[in-house]
């Protein structure tokens, strides 16, 4: 779809998103762009909004009543570096000046004292070059002292882009960047109620991965609140990740069996191995080509090189640990940005905590771990737990419907 196919009198609010990394990827660009557009269309389906791509820009034209929903979708859209609400005007210098004046007055009203114009002329047939556009447009704010010009540290940057039409905008919101979700296949995220795993999922989504989630629940040792917490986290994963399926695996019997059949110091590690076995069962069902965890080197006893080698030896798919080299503060910063942090720190116990041994093995030899695992004869219980899984779907589309009621 092109701009001239949309009735801009009806769809009279306009947004522009900037495609970042996408513009660098040669022949893949078309695939990536198509995915980005598919993702936005999915998010805003059923709303009075039209969207299209043109020369490195995402355009959304909508009716006034769905501006809030569009902004929410853009804030969660992975694959753009920023977005702005823009004024779309005719391709004449007078129309540009009028729009720049409006933007300048709005910036002044919100406290700006200085500005600069950043002009771009994509359409080389336009009568003025970008320098001339900037000079003429700046005059409408500078000549009567509305704002001072400051090209180095302006309070407001007013952008003018001359394309099929002219787009004028000031405030630009930075967003998630990354590659559009869906261009890098699917990963299966081991999602606990903690701080780390949602961040790990987000990191992989930023590399274009679609993410489904698997959560091991040991009711009544882990409460219903603990599961609710994981559902709330999965909901956020579904907002940034377009959609996600949360698979809840009833793991009580598996945990009880470990408690009675494994040496105490190996119990946490055995639980990890059972989780991995179960993830192996689920991955082909959801179409996942990789397994993702929120592990970070040295963070807890199960996350030493040796113990992670044991877990890894049980994974039948590539095992991604995007947080491996991050410290807690870096992880928390991302969790705060995502909005998962306040949920993750709610006090409901996670099954691993309740069954934690006093002195967990720190450097388990892989062969020894395998031997203990085989002796437990637990595969059937893992299969049974897998067969009894419950699946819950979350998506940006549902979140938008829920919040904006359209
Ligand atoms: P998190 O903050 O993500 O809970 P953590 O630092 O508490 O991580 P562990 O409890 O050792 O670390 O868990 C390591 C990883 O194992 C988690 O990041 C998660 O990917 C996975 N995991 C742990 N418990 C569960 C669970 N109950 N369900 C699903 N995955 C889990
Ligand atoms: Mg945890």
Automatic annotation (TrEMBL):
Listed PROSITE patterns: THUMP (PS51165)
Class of enzymatic activity (EC top level): transferase
Binding site for ATP: 190-191, 215-216, 272, 294, 303
Domain THUMP stretches: 68-172
Catalysed reaction, written as an equation: [ThiS sulfur-carrier protein]-C-terminal Gly-Gly-AMP + S-sulfanyl-L-cysteinyl-[cysteine desulfurase] + AH2 = [ThiS sulfur-carrier protein]-C-terminal-Gly-aminoethanethioate + L-cysteinyl-[cysteine desulfurase] + A + AMP + 2 H(+); [ThiI sulfur-carrier protein]-S-sulfanyl-L-cysteine + a uridine in tRNA + 2 reduced [2Fe-2S]-[ferredoxin] + ATP + H(+) = [ThiI sulfur-carrier protein]-L-cysteine + a 4-thiouridine in tRNA + 2 oxidized [2Fe-2S]-[ferredoxin] + AMP + diphosphate
Keywords of the record: ATP-binding, Cytoplasm, Nucleotide-binding, RNA-binding, Thiamine biosynthesis, Transferase, tRNA-binding
Enzyme Commission number(s): 2.8.1.4
GO cellular component, one term: cytosol
Keyword Repeat: no
Protein localization: Cytoplasm
Main location: cytoplasm
Gene3D superfamilies in alphabetical order: 3.30.2130.30, HUPs
Pathway the protein takes part in: Cofactor biosynthesis; thiamine diphosphate biosynthesis
Oxidoreductase listed as a keyword: no
MF GO annotations: ATP binding; CCA tRNA nucleotidyltransferase activity; tRNA binding; tRNA-uracil-4 sulfurtransferase activity
Alphabetical GO biological process terms: thiamine biosynthetic process; thiamine diphosphate biosynthetic process; thiazole biosynthetic process; tRNA 4-thiouridine biosynthesis
Family to which the UniProt record says this protein belongs: Belongs to the ThiI family.
NCBIfam families the UniProt entry points to: tRNA uracil 4-sulfurtransferase ThiI
UniProt function note: Catalyzes the ATP-dependent transfer of a sulfur to tRNA to produce 4-thiouridine in position 8 of tRNAs, which functions as a near-UV photosensor. Also catalyzes the transfer of sulfur to the sulfur carrier protein ThiS, forming ThiS-thiocarboxylate. This is a step in the synthesis of thiazole, in the thiamine biosynthesis pathway. The sulfur is donated as persulfide by IscS.
The protein's name: Probable tRNA sulfurtransferase
